[in-house]
């Protein structure tokens, strides 16, 4: 199988970027302590960035007889740095602000393709 040329990769990445119609913020994991000196997670928000979010519906999961492992996924540029403990906040869908924004936990390792990363997400329920 022939390797992709640098021009082909650049073209694929440009096409991917053109189809990222949503906005997200990567919230980087850190740790702090509470009043009892117990560790608790703390998140620092990065700069807003273009992304491509896709929600998965229970119907999609059931028709494929899969166990629901994620509530959706997000496409990010290839150079994006992530830690599995970080969170992703979806702030805009199709250019429209979400109120409130939607927070997600990262499930597993990001999947890297030739034009970007795909990150599986699970809706955050702890409010962090």
Please give the share of residues in helix: 10-25%
The outline comes out as globular
Relevant CATH superfamily: Bacteriophage SPP1 head-tail adaptor protein
Beta-strand residue fraction: over 45%
Report mean pLDDT, rounded to a whole number.
85
Based on CA atoms alone, the radius of gyration comes out at: 17 Å
For the largest beta-sheet, the strand count, sense and barrel status come to: 6 strands, antiparallel, barrel
What is the SS-derived class? mainly beta
Spans of at least 5 consecutive residues with low confidence: none
Q: Based on the coordinates given, report the CATH architecture.
A: Beta Barrel
Helix/strand order, N-terminal first: HEEEHEEEE
The tally of domains stands at: 1
Strand order of the largest sheet: 1-3-4-7-6-5
**SS field, number of helical segments:** 2
Distance between the termini: 45 Å
Counting DSSP E segments of at least 2 residues, the number of strands comes to: 7
The CATH topology assignment is Thrombin, subunit H
CATH class equals Mainly Beta
